[in-house]
Amino acid sequence: MARYDLSDFEWKIIEPLLPPSGLGAARVDDRQVVNGIFYILRTGSPWRDLPGRYGPYTTVYNRFNRWSRKGVWLAVFEALTKQSPQSMQFIDSSIIRAHQHAAGAKKGVRITPLAVLVAD
């Protein structure tokens, strides 16, 4: 179990909310895929950089998209916040820092529009 993988308690909440697996070829375990999705969301890494312990990145990406379209994530987050309030810290704990020069342009520079209106 990796550092931020789901606990057994959290998995018991999430598992019934996931769509049932279809018939056919054996598929990657849903818990493994959910942990992979949370890894990507937490780190901001590209899908291709997903560690192998979570399964093929294409599988994890495809399930994330399918479950997003079906509204599974909203149900998961609502269930987790009801049953496990400390999970919300994981879901909403991001910080975005701006570059030191991102505050604005040089002082005294006049900004002119791309199209200038001409009056008759």
Can you summarize this structure?
Helices cover 42% and strands 0% of the residues. The chain has 120 residues and is mainly alpha-helical.
Mean pLDDT: 78
Portion in helices = 40-55%
Point out poorly predicted stretches.
Answer: none
Q: How many beta-strand segments?
A: 0
What's the end-to-end separation, in Å? Answer: 73 Å
What is the SS-derived class? mainly alpha
Largest sheet: none
Tell the overall outline.
Answer: globular
Q: Which percent range describes the beta-strand content?
A: under 5%
Tally of helical segments: 5
H/E topology pattern: HHHHH
Write down the Rg.
22 Å
Write the layout of secondary structure elements.
Layout: H1 8-14, H2 30-43, H3 57-69, H4 72-83, H5 87-91
Mind explaining what this structure looks like?
- The model has no long low-confidence stretch (mean pLDDT 78).
- The protein starts with 7 loop residues before the first helix and ends in a 29-residue tail after the last helix.
- The longest helix has 14 residues, at 30-43.
- Helices cover 42% and strands 0% of the residues.
- It has one domain.
- It is built from five helices and no strands.
Keywords:
mainly alpha, 120 residues, single chain, 5 helices, 42% helix
